[in-house]
Records
---
Amino acid sequence: MNTRTLDPAKVAPALNAASGWWLTTLGRIERTTAADPAIRVLQRGIRSLPLGGVRDLLKGRPLGHPLHPVLVQVPIGCWLSAAVLDAVPGERRAATTLTAVGLLGVAPAAIAGWADWADQPPEQARVGLAHAASNAAAVSCYAVSLAARLGGRPVKGRMWAWAGLAAVAVTGALGGHIAYRQDTD
C-alpha cells in the first residue's frame, strides 16, 4: 500500500508560484489599454439599450446584489455534473441532457453579466472582457460537445466537455477577480 502524502513544504512554493503568475497576469490585463476604445463603445451601447425596469432586474437590485453570479450556477452546475456523470458508465444520456441544459442557461447569465459589466470601471471592464472571451470559449466547447454527443460520438463529446470545463475554471477565476479583487500589497 502506498502511504505517501503531500509534503506541504514542497506544495506551498508551487502554489505560491502559480498564484504569483496568475496575479501578475491579471495585473497586466487590468493595466493594458489596448481594448479601451472597444470597451467604451460596448459599454455605451449596452447602457443605451432601452431596458427600463428590466435593467434593474438584470443588475439584481431586487435581490440587493448582482444577479449574474446567481444565474451562472445553472451552466456551471450542469457542466460539472455532466463531467461527473461522464465518469460513470451508462450515464451518457444524463450527461448529454445536462450539457444541453447548461447551454440553455448561458443566455440569461450572459445578459445579466453584460448589464453589470457596462458600469464597471476600466480595470474591471478589461478583466471582464477577458472573462467574456473565456466564457465564449467555454460555450463553444460545450456546443461542440453537445453536437458530438448527439451525433453518436461520445468520446469526442467528453473531450470537448473537459476542454469546456477547463475554460469554465479560467472564466470563473476571472469573474471572481472582478467581484472580489483584493490588494495584496
Note: The mean pLDDT is 94.
---
Amino acid sequence: MRDVIYLDRMEQAETLLKPQRVEVLRQLAAPSSCTEVAEVLDQTPQRVHYHVKQLVKAGLATQVSERKVRGVQEGLYQAVARSYWLSPRLVGRIGSRDELALGHLVDLAEQIQVDVAALDRSSELPSIGVSGEIRVLPEERQQFLTELQTTLQDLFTRYGGAEGDAFRIALACYPKGEDR
C-alpha cells in the first residue's frame, strides 16, 4: 500500500467523491471481504460489492486474494493508498495565471502534490520543509518581493548546473488572511 495516490483523472474523482465509497475505502485499509465491510457499515454485501467494484475499476482499491467460504470464492480487497490527493485541475479555475496571482499558488501547490506523491518513501529522502511568517509594511512589500526574488535567482544560478541530484524548490508567499 502506498502512502499517497495523486488523482488527476475525473473518473477517479467521481468514483471517490461519494460518501459511501469513502467509508468503504476506509474499511479497506486492511484486506477485507465485502461481507466483512458490509457488517461494519451496516449495509448489504451486494451494495458494498458494487462500491468495491467501482473502486477497483478506478484504481483506488485492488483484490489482494481469495478464500473459500461455505463453498464460495470470496475476494479480499484493499485500498491502494492511505491517502488520496485530488488535483485542483479537476475543479478548474477562472482567471489569471500570472505569477503574482493566487491562481499561480494553486498551480504550485498542485506541482508539489504531484512530486511528493511520486516519491519513494521506502528510503531516507534528502528533503527539507520550512515554514514561517514574515511581517512587511505595505510600503516595503515591493522591496521585500524583489529581494526575495533576487536571493532565489542567485541560488538557482549558483546551483543550477546540469550535474548532480535534481531538487525542486518551491516558495509560496501570500497574505496570511484575516490577521495581516
Note: The first strand starts at residue 2 and ends at 7.
---
Amino acid sequence: MTKKQRALEVIERLKKEYPDAGCTLDYDQAWKLLVSVRLAAQCTDARVNVVVEGLYEKYPDVNALAAADVDDIEEIVRPCGLGRSKARDISACMKILRDEYDGKVPDDFDALLKLPGVGRKSANLIMGDVFGKPAIVTDTHCIRLVNRIGLVDGIKEPKKVEMELWKIIPPEEGSDLCHRLVYHGRDVCTARTKPYCDKCCLADICKKNGV
C-alpha cells in the first residue's frame, strides 16, 4: 500500500467514524476564529471557548476590540496563558483588520500570515473553515497521528509535515481530515496513554510507528 493509497483509505474510514467532525473552537464570525486560534496556543479549546464569551461581551466587534486597551484584553484572556503576548497580538491584529481590511478577515493565505500572531496552522484553519479553501492544519494531533499511521516518516516540524501531506491528500479533503484526526487523537490514538488500537478503525492499515 502506497502512502497515497493509505491516505485515501484513512480519509474514508475517518469520515464514517466522525461524520460531523468540525472545528472545536466556537465562533460565528471569521474575526472571532482569528482571536480564538491565537488564544488556543498552549491552551485547550474548551477553555478558550469559555474565555472568549467574556471578551466578546465587552468587545462585540472588530472596531471595539481594536480600540480596547491591551491591559484590559490581557485581564480577560489571562486564563488562557501567555496573556501579555496574546493580548498584544489580538490588539494589533484587530487594528490591521480595521485599518486595512474594512474590518474583514482576508481570504488570502499570505495576507493572513502577515497578521500578528498568525502562523501557518492558524492561517490554514481559517482558509479551510471560514473560506472553504484547501487547507491542512498540522496541529499536535495531526503530526502525531500521521507519523504513527505511516503517512509521513518521522517528521515533526509542522510545515514539513504539511508539505508532505499535500503530496498525498486531495486538496478538498485536507481540512475535514485534520478535524477528524483531532477527534481520533483525543478518543482513540491518544498521546498520554497507550493508544486504544483494539478499537481503532485504522488498526489494520496503521503502521503503528512508535507504539
Note: The chain has a mean pLDDT of 97.
---
Amino acid sequence: MKRITVFCGSSSGTEAIYTEQAILLGQTFAKENIQLVYGGANVGLMGAVADGVLNNGGKAIGVLPNFLRSKEIAHLGLTELILVESMHERKTKMNDLCDGVIALPGGFGTLEELFEMLTWAQLGLHKKPIAILNINGFYDSLIKLTENMTKKGLLKEANQKMLLVSDTIPDLLHQMRNYTPPSVGKWIDKDEV
C-alpha cells in the first residue's frame, strides 16, 4: 500500500488518546513510506494525523472543498493540497488516490465517508481494504450494529467482514495488507435469510 486515505474528526474529541493515536498513525505512515490522503485540514484529528506524517518526513495529500477552506482551515504544510468543488468530488478524489481506507474517531462526516466507501466496495466499485482503528472502544457500538444488520438478514456476513477492525496500528495495517475482497455480490436472496 502506497497511499491510505484517513477519515477522522475535524475536532479532537474528549480523550487525549484519540490525538495520540492519530499522531502515531501519521508517524507510522512516514516510517513505512505510506502517503497520507485526507481531508486537508490542520485542526482536530485531521491535523494531528497530517502533522504526524509531515513531522517525520512523510508525504500528506489533502483534498478540501473550497467552501470548507475557511471552516476546516487548510493545512499549509502539506505535500499537496487539492481543492475541489463538492463533498462528493472530495470522496471520489480521495478514493482515486488511495489503496485503502482507515477511519479514526469522528462524527457524522467521518461515518458518511466510511459508509460510502463500504457501499462502493459492496457494489464492486473498488476492492480496497476499509478499516477502523477502534481507539479505546470508540467504534464498539457501530461494530455491534453491523453484526445486528447481518443477524437480521439485511447485510451478508461476507460484506460485514469487509470492515477490518483493530485497536492497534500494526495489526490493522497487517489486516489491510492481507485483505481479500469478498467474491459474493451484494444482493441478498429471500432464501438466504
Note: The first strand starts at residue 3 and ends at 7.
